[in-house]
Design a protein that fits this description.
Blueprint lengths: L1 H22 L9 E5 L1 E17 L2 E5 L4 E6 L6 E2 L4 E5 L2 H36 L5 H33 L2 E3 L4 E6 L6 E2 L7 E6 L4 E9 H4 L7 E6 L2 E13 L4 E3 L2 E11 L10 E18 H4 L23 E8 L2 E12 L3 E4 L8 E6 L5
Antiparallel strand pairs: 1-20, 2-11, 2-16, 3-10, 4-6, 4-9, 5-8, 6-7, 8-10, 11-15, 12-13, 12-16, 13-15, 14-15, 16-19, 17-18, 18-19
Helix pairs in contact: 2-3
Length: 369
């Protein structure tokens, strides 16, 4: 019986030893690892967003009077000067109205003159007690009425004259016609609101982008920061600009709060056009010629099967600015705690003093059986 127990126990021990041999590390081979070197260079942190290119100042030119457009003098993309005539409305009806108001003004002046003469005569008679007080008061009221009628006539004439002037549509600024919404013979109605006839961009050599930036990034931005951007029309060119304004009014897009950041730039040769979509990158911080590591290397996690090759126990209480990288030294893996600095899309700055020539494990392929 004892002999049988000894055989069983022996078989169990052999099985456990075989299992241990199958699962235990068999040694490290350099060919099973991809190693990466550190490098020195710039790390630039940027915030991205997108928005439309717009002129800095756009003026809508409309009309305050209704009428038929008699003639249009400008077209799309034309350069105009301040005060230049853009279009004329038919003046005949408003001209007749002004003449009517002018005649009423002349009549009111004559009535006021008669009232003044009559008042003076009545006043003299009243002082000599030749007429009653009521007759004097009536003359006084007639004078005040005539004076008020003259003021009304003057206002109506001034309004008719001003409306006649509105039939000549002029540009309030110097710039470029980017929109024309009227043609000769068209009737425009200004009864309820002023219709827009032209849109004038004041200066297309200086433009801006109204970029949408998420609330998570807005706290990093300041006026004057350097910005770069691209457009689909010129995919191989990078244009430069500067943060001009951070608007406080938020908008919500798919449950994400966004803020408008205005980036201004010089549009040399007027190459970029209003309405183009710009993909903006705003530089918030930069480290020049620092020791850095590729971000993909920091994503490497040591497989459980290789933990037996560690030269020391992995530190668990890492701060948010710390991480672990692994060095391959002969048949051992050495964990190194590094302190991280600034990061961008590709690299992370290393604040821990390390030899630039060391090799860091970035990927484990497999172990040969």
């Amino acid at each position: 019986m004892k002999k049988r127990y000894s055989i069983v126990i022996g078989l169990i021990l052999v099985s456990l030893f075989a299992a241990w041999k199958m699962t235990s590390p068999k040694g490290l081979e350099k060919n099973n690892f991809i190693l990466t070197s550190l490098s020195k260079g710039d790390v630039v942190h940027s915030i991205t967003g997108s928005g439309q290119i717009q002129p800095i100042n756009v003026v809508s030119v409309g009309t305050q009077v209704s009428g038929i457009v008699e003639k249009v003098y400008v077209d799309y993309n034309e350069e105009v000067k301040k005060g230049q005539i853009l279009a004329d409305l038919d003046r005949s009806l408003l001209n007749e109205e002004m003449k009517e108001k002018e005649a009423l003004l002349t009549l009111s002046k004559a009535k006021l003159k008669i009232s003044k003469l009559n008042y003076k005569r009545i006043e003299d008679l009243y002082k000599e007690n030749l007429i009653s007080k009521s007759e004097f008061e009536e003359a006084e009221i007639d004078l005040e009425t005539a004076s008020s009628d003259l003021e009304t006539a003057e206002a109506n004439y001034a309004k008719a004259k001003r409306n006649l002037g509105y039939t000549r549509i002029v540009s309030p600024v110097s710039g470029t016609i980017i929109s024309k919404d009227v043609d000769s013979g068209q009737t425009v109605a200004a009864s309820y609101q002023t219709p827009t006839l032209f849109t004038v961009a004041e200066d297309l050599s200086k433009m801006q982008i109204e970029a949408n930036i998420s609330e998570a990034d807005i706290g990093l931005l300041k006026k004057g920061m350097t910005a770069s951007f691209t457009v689909d029309a010129y995919p191989n060119e990078v244009f430069k600009g500067e943060v001009y304004q951070i608007r406080l009014n938020p908008t919500e897009e798919e449950n994400v709060i966004m803020y408008t950041v205005v980036v201004r730039f010089e549009n040399k040769g007027k190459k970029l056009l209003p309405g183009m979509t710009a993909f903006v990158k705003i530089q918030t911080d930069k480290r020049e010629n620092v020791l850095r590591i590729e971000n993909m290397v920091l994503q490497f996690k040591l497989p459980k099967g290789l933990e037996g090759f560690l030269t020391e126990k992995i530190k668990k209480d890492l701060s948010a600015s710390e991480t672990i990288v692994y060095l391959l030294k002969e048949d051992k893996i050495e964990p190194v705690v590094i302190k991280k600095g600034l990061s961008d899309m590709d690299y992370t700055e290393i604040l821990t003093p390390l030899d630039e020539k060391i090799k860091i494990i970035s990927e484990y392929i497999s172990r040969k059986k």
